[in-house]
Amino acid sequence: MDIILLERIEKLGTIGDVVSVKDGYARNFLLPQKKALRANDSNRKVFEANRDRLEKENAERRSDAEKSGEKVAGTEIVLIRASSNSGQLYGSVNVRDIVLGLEEKGHKIDKRQVILGSPIKTIGMFDVTIALHPEVHITIKANVARSDDEAELQSQGVDVIAQMNEDERSESEGFTEAVDPTLEPGEIPAELMQGADEGEDAAEG
Description:
Radius of gyration: 31 Å
Number of strands: 9
Order of helices and strands: EEHEHEEHEEEEHHH
Oligomer: single chain
Structural class: alpha+beta
Strand order of the largest sheet: 4-9-8-6
């Protein structure tokens, strides 16, 4: 379907562009949300008659979004979640969690403005994009941790998962027997030999 864009759409075009899109995308998203008009003669005339007003309104919305963006950009939200020892979450962090986290910080964001490719499934620091306007995108940080202390460490740049793995490795290494560096490979330590000799003496006696 050919449509006339009423605002800039990522990867499609900007106001006034006539582009061809799949029928479903136009009917289910662009047309009902008034982001586009069907490209026919009467709509072209309507658009041209209103182009100046539409461009002016768009510029005002963009300016408002830029001002809001200055307040929200770089905000760090802390999301405390339970996870396994490897850092895998029991569950996940989704768009709704991001919206609620921003709300707690005093930022009202519509869930449709949050661009999260897929739910977050591990602890760590994540950049999340917020589209305040088709031409204004900002980034916030989602700090997903198991405790406030852990979140604080991640804020300071500590890789908590790497640290957990390191601790796990140290623990498992603690269970291995210490190797005597003076021995040749295959040589039996003297104290074991001594024990064996005593055992033999006892058997003989």
